Task: inverse folding
């Protein structure tokens, strides 16, 4: 019985939150890695693109709610994600036309485009604060739990339990669906293959008749959609806060680099590794060990490797270690 | 030539305010994190000044208030503003500052150097109780050390012995958490964990994970209701880590029970407040004067009134002379003075009688000259903050 209690604790505080947060990071990292693979620069504005998509989704959710729309037990916001995706993609195309296409035609150094993307990031952040303001927005109106900790405890009679929030299940499910669709698209469709060809060797791809404008457009469409989904799912599960998207850049880039920049599968797995390691390292194991170990060995201290304040340091440390030991990442992407 | 002369004359006339006999510096954060509170606080102080001016018993002529911006957070800007009040506006006392950090800076760098009396309406850091002040610093706000004591009393009464504390990582949170921990332990309770949280995160599951492992009957959240504190509570409810919460003053607001929903029912809290008749009276006076009796507006009125009454009692507007009268005015023995009765107070002083200034916030200065503090005990019932008792 004690082992089940320990397991329930770990599932409640590490596995479920880790998989949820990991999914949100994975979606973000997929977007970053695709932009890097095809357009050859690190897009620091990606976090703000997530924020922008979420903002549009929230605005339409409010509008929809005022007309009485709802989505039974699911959050109403999900109904309006497609509209938000359209707006976010349009915004991506606008910045592509006005900023990034200029540098690409010049064949500018990637570092210059990166700096330009930081400019776009600040511009977008300002625009968002201007439209929706800097405050928090909570827009999840669906049923909160699939089953709560208390339900679980009553059902099993265990001392410890775990709950599953609707948004956690949605996040993990939607991420798996989107990622599998993306891998299928890249590997099996003509457009996907042309994107990979363009990514591998631009000159050769152009010679074989691939239309670069189409490839660029499709890349932005995918990146914009992924960003919107990542942002909306994060906002539904936690809270929408315009300021946190800058903080999220670090774990997202760590995930992309850990998996191998330019490698979508790497980005996907990197997201989960970063999220789980953040939680594993900062979790206090006092109770878990109390259940597993014999009574006289049960610890008095918190049994915590790192204080939770250092959560972001974990992704930073992973980033540094990867860059020193294996700059190409786990799945051998490109080096930045 | 004529035009220049008229302009100069007009300017002189406009400036007559600065020629008044007694001047009070009102230094509050008119810009910065508490800018939404300060207009009402300043209006509170100015209401006291008006009342003194209307009375015929103030022997030192007209009083005027001079506003300055403390910014609440920028010590350099605050000390410059205070310096300006003293050297160029030549004020006779300072009503302010507001936030604990800038108040300490102004006290140590400007007020003590110039021997100027300062009465703060809202600085609550426990550190200000012990700071060296040459008898110049007073506050009509209670120290957070006092709140810690009240919190510990309530916890003891409710029989909650094992507590976990999550505090916001700044001077306010640290001071309050330390005070709650100290008082709770002194009352025989145990603190399983006292861990900080940051205000600007979207996800508090890791912080709550650690708190949950330490366990406890109740989670004390010494934070801000719309910056972090709400996230801690939401994550605790989601993971089933804690069922009830203790909400100190930074967490009391209408928004929180609304945002969290039924999960918050049964939680308890404290917020500065009093059932003294002065509070209701001040609220009416504020409405009549066209402002709101918001947080710390009562304390601001009391701070200004205390300072002016002390001047009258000492028959001098010199800080070094009237500083010793402030404690006498504020405390018993004497006739109780409520807001709107400043004229009566001046009259009594003229007649050589003792007064006990109660004011709007039930002022009782203890220790080195800080308010003993009155707290309302809050309970969340049906998603509303309900005052169940006063302490």
Result:
């Amino acid at each position: 019985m004690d082992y089940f209690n320990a397991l329930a604790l770990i599932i409640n505080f590490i596995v479920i939150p880790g998989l949820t947060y990991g999914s949100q990071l994975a979606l973000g990292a997929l977007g970053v890695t695709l932009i890097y693979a095809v357009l050859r620069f690190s897009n620091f504005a990606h976090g703000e693109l997530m924020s922008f998509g979420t903002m549009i989704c929230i605005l339409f959710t409010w509008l929809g709610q005022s007309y009485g729309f709802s989505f039974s037990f699911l959050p109403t916001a999900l109904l309006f994600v497609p509209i938000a995706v359209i707006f976010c993609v349009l915004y991506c195309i606008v910045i592509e036309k006005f900023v990034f296409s200029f540098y690409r035609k010049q064949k500018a150094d990637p570092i210059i485009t990166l700096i330009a993307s930081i400019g776009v990031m600040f511009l977008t952040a300002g625009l968002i604060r201007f439209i929706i303001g800097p405050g928090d927005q909570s827009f999840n109106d669906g049923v909160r739990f699939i089953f709560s900790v208390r339900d679980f405890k009553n059902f099993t009679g265990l001392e410890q339990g775990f709950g599953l929030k609707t948004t956690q299940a949605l996040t993990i499910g939607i991420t798996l669906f989107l990622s599998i669709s993306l891998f299928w698209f890249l590997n099996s469709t003509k457009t996907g293959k042309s994107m990979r060809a363009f990514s591998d060797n631009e000159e050769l791809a152009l010679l074989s008749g691939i239309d670069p404008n189409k490839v660029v457009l499709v890349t932005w469409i995918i990146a914009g959609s992924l960003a919107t989904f990542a942002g909306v799912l994060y906002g539904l599960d936690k809270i929408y806060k315009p300021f946190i998207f800058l903080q999220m850049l670090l774990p997202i880039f760590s995930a992309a680099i850990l998996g191998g920049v330019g490698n979508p599968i790497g980005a996907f797995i990197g997201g989960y590794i970063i999220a789980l390691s953040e939680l594993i390292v900062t979790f206090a194991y006092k109770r878990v060990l109390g259940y597993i170990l014999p009574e006289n060995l049960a610890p008095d201290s918190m049994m915590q490797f790192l204080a939770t304040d250092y959560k972001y340091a974990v992704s930073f440390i992973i980033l540094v270690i990867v860059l020193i030991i294996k700059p190409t990442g786990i799945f051998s992407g490109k080096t930045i | 030539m004529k035009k220049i002369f008229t302009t100069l004359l007009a300017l002189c006339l406009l400036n007559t305010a600065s020629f008044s006999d007694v001047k009070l510096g009102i230094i509050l954060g008119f810009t910065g994190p508490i800018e939404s509170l300060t207009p009402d606080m300043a209006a509170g102080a100015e209401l006291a000044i008006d009342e003194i001016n209307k009375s015929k018993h103030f022997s030192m002529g007209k009083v005027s208030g001079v506003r300055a911006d403390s910014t609440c957070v920028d010590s350099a800007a605050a000390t410059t503003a205070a310096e300006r009040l003293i050297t160029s506006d030549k004020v006779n006392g300072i009503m302010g500052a507001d936030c604990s950090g800038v108040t300490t800076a102004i006290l140590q760098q400007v007020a003590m150097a110039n021997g100027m009396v300062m009465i703060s309406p809202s600085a609550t850091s426990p550190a200000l109780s012990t700071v060296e002040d040459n008898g110049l610093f007073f506050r009509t706000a209670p120290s957070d050390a006092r709140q810690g004591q009240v919190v510990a009393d309530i916890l003891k009464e409710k029989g909650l012995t094992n507590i976990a504390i999550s505090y916001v990582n700044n001077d306010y949170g640290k001071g309050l958490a330390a005070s709650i921990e100290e008082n709770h332990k002194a009352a025989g309770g145990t603190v399983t964990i006292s861990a900080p949280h940051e205000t600007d995160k979207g996800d508090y599951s890791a912080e709550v994970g650690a708190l949950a492992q330490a366990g406890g009957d109740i989670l004390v959240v010494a934070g801000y209701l719309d910056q972090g504190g709400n996230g801690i509570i939401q994550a605790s409810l989601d993971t089933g880590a804690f069922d009830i919460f203790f909400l100190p003053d930074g967490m009391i607001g209408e928004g929180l029970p609304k945002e969290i929903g039924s999960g918050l029912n049964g939680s308890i809290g404290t917020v500065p407040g009093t059932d003294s008749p002065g509070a209701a009276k001040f609220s009416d006076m504020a409405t009549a004067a066209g402002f709101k009796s918001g947080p710390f507006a009562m304390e601001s009125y009391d701070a200004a009134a205390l300072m002016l009454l002390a001047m009258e009692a000492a028959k001098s507007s010199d800080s070094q002379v009237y500083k010793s009268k402030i404690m006498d005015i504020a405390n018993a023995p004497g006739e109780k003075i409520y807001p709107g009765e400043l004229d009566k107070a001046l009259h009594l002083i003229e007649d050589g009688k003792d007064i006990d200034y109660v004011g709007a916030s039930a002022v009782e200065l203890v220790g080195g000259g800080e308010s003993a503090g009155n707290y309302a005990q809050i309970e969340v019932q049906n998603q509303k903050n309900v005052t169940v008792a006063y302490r």
